[in-house]
């Protein structure tokens, strides 16, 4: 229901779960997220209540993710900040913090978080991917090329089609169509049904 933005039906589902198991925390959080999504006046009160129920890292994480899912950056930021008080090196929470800063167009703050994460966890691809995306969205094609190339060359995520696709976009942005085509074909082998890959291949064909 949430995927199709049927928030009313999603809320009814959470209410049904809570009628059977009123202390089900994920269901409580899901219901609160639907209240936010529908601009309900109960959302803030519900959020304050759930904050009091957060006694472990995963509670803050679940609450933050749901707030982010429905676009409430302020509430999500509060949750991830609280999580990081409990676990200062929590990788995913820092990734989300970077994403929130990027959504607010605080590019330097987002970049700083990601640079630190990539240095602390050089074998994890997520921070490199977000750094590449950060530069790609700003048309910093040479910089984004560096990060996606690093992911591929160091085999940080060998089964993931996206780094090959994103590297191709970085190369297209620099007019390097032949190189880009090779990476798109590699991406397509990993994800044959992805329309974005074929669309980019069609774009390159037009430049031949």
The string of secondary-structure elements, in order, is HHHHHHHHHHHH
- Helix proportion of residues, in percent? over 70%
Structural class by SSE content: mainly alpha
Q: Any idea what the radius of gyration is?
A: 20 Å
- The tally of helices reads 12
Shape: elongated
Strand residue content: under 5%
The stretches of 5 or more residues where confidence is low (pLDDT under 50) are none
Distance between the termini: 44 Å
On the 0 to 100 scale, the average pLDDT is 93
Count of extended strands: 0
> What's the main sheet like?
none
Overview features:
208 residues, mainly alpha, 12 helices
Structure write-up:
This protein is 75% helix and 0% strand. By secondary structure, it is mostly helical. It is built from twelve helices and no strands. Helix 1 (7-20) runs antiparallel to helix 2, helix 2 packs parallel to helix 4 (57-69) and helix 5 packs antiparallel against helix 6. The mean pLDDT is 93. It is elongated, with a radius of gyration of 20 Å. The longest helix has 14 residues, at 7-20.
């Amino acid at each position: 229901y949430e995927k199709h933005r049927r928030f009313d039906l999603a809320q009814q589902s959470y209410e049904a779960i809570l009628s059977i198991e009123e202390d089900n925390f994920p269901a409580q959080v899901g219901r609160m997220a639907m209240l936010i999504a529908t601009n309900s006046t109960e959302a803030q009160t519900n959020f304050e209540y759930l904050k009091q129920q957060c006694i472990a890292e995963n509670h803050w994480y679940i609450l933050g993710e749901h707030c982010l899912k429905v676009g409430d950056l302020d509430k999500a930021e509060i949750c991830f900040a609280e999580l990081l008080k409990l676990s200062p090196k929590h990788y995913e929470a820092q990734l989300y913090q970077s994403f929130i800063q990027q959504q607010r167009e605080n590019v330097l703050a987002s970049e700083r978080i990601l640079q630190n994460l990539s240095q602390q966890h050089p074998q994890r691809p997520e921070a490199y991917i977000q750094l590449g995306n950060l530069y790609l969205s700003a048309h910093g094609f040479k910089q984004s090329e560096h990060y996606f190339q690093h992911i591929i060359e160091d085999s940080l995520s060998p089964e993931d089609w996206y780094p090959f696709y994103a590297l191709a976009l970085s190369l297209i942005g620099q007019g390097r169509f032949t190189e880009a085509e090779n990476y798109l074909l590699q991406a397509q082998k990993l994800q044959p049904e992805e329309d974005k890959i074929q669309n980019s291949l069609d774009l390159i064909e037009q430049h031949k």
